[in-house]
Please model this.
Amino acid sequence: MPKMKTNKAAARRFKITATGKILHKQAGRRHLNEWKSANVKRKLRGWTAVAPEMKKSVQELFPYPKYLR
Model:
């Protein structure tokens, strides 16, 4: 039986924490930033948790528990 492969696109986009939360970067920070306020740009920094309804579909892209840290 061949090994199952982790979806590499998902591995680059999501982080899985030790408690099992799935995190992703926030959208809206890539371009048109000169028109956004510093307040908005500051709030878009960092990682946030994936929505609960999306969690199951993201977990299917990580077949092994090694990635589910």
